[in-house]
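Because discrete structure vocabularies remain unfamiliar, we reproduce here a specimen of the format, pairing a chain with its fold in token form:
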Amino acid sequence: MAVVLVATGCAPTVRMEPPESDGTTDQMCAALVAELPDTLLDAERAEITPESEVMAAWGDPPIGLRCGVPRPAALARDSLIEEVDGVAWLPQPPNEPTLFTAVGHTAYVELTVPPSYGAPAAALTTVSALVDEHIPPLPDGEL
């Protein structure tokens, strides 16, 4: 996911690439994004461009979230999966992850956390609760 900080006037704007929509996940993703906090890992919510109901960003360097992204190409039956509060996350790259994708739900959710924020556990916990609440799980055994 490309997340770029753009200076425009007083407040920074984060340029993000919106996920291609198939129309099936937009409503649940919009509900998840609407409930995201104003602060994540002590970073304040930022404006994003283009405006989207399925994306959010915080801070500088930007933490980015996109809901409704395609299934990760790296996702396989033997992938290393981290579970946070019942939500499975695919960390990428495996040795020093900065991109985490919630899998096992009807919409995939990407969370990019730059290394400067330290451990992403608090952000993953916050987002996991909203994924669990808004994105229905896939049948058992499916990622």
The CA atoms of residues 113 and 138 lie 25 Å apart. DSSP finds two helices and ten strands in the chain.
